[in-house]
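Session log. Operator J.P. requested a structure for one protein chain; no other inputs attached. Running the standard single-chain path with token output.
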Amino acid sequence: MIVLSGCSSAQSVLDAQGEAAVALKNLIIFIALVAAAIWLAVVSVMAITLVRSKDQTPRLDHRSERMMTIAVATATAATILTVGILTLASFYTTRALTSGGDPDVTIIVRAQQWWWQFIYTGRDQKQLFQTANELHIPVGKTIRLRLQAADVIHSFWVPSLAGKLDLIPGRENLLTLRAEKPGIYRGQCAEFCGLQHSHMAFVVIAEDDADYQRWLAGQRLDAATPSAAEAIAGQAVFLAKQCAACHAIRGTPAAGSTGPDLTHVGSRRTIAAGLLETTRGSLAAWIADPQTLKPGNNMPIVPLTADELRQLSAYMGSLR
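Structure written below.
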């Protein structure tokens, strides 16, 4: 039951839906089969030896020494051969993490304590935009990820689509993603990076090309101007309380870069790197006391009245 529980989940290497993930899955199965064959061989030899030793008095003669030498030499050669085969298999599988030819889409992935910044590049600066903790990609296309770290070492890992690769400060690593079918795939930081390491998740949403292009066009737009009175008041609170010093909302004076871009925050599935589903209630709870929900994160507690909190959460929810 314990073994079978790892066969399927939102984050399983055995649920491979990408070219690199399939290569890694095959490597895992191959290594498991080789290890099982070695185990069976060793146990069989031990069992045969134990059975034979019951009826025979141990003796050491020239023939026994010769048999022992042959056995040791054979075991050594088999070990070298096995290690060599596994090393080659691992080497060629690892190459699949960055293979795939010229990419169809290039995305900058910047990890920081404790959230993910995804920057979508374009033909010119006007097409550039960014999201947080939610990566959209088109199905059947080669996606090149430029992995960067803003503070400490992190590790990008989406088991169903590719292997994990570290993000190291001062160095850019490249990773290739390719989803073979639409779906929502969970990712996680796989390198301990501090207090909230376990709460540094993200999702990869693989969509048909038409859906992806619609999402892309919507994300490139500036934030919608609020129409409801409560949301309009919330925008004023956002600007007055200096939230704009850390966050950006395109189409408004807010141009901060320390925290996530909030231009379309209301359309994201989660906030706080997968900690909470995006609802007005969770937005209000996060704004009111982010340190209780995620201790140690870099968002300070901003003093707000009850009315201001309601207005600000309404404005955040309207940003779709």
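Operator note: The radius of gyration is 27 Å.
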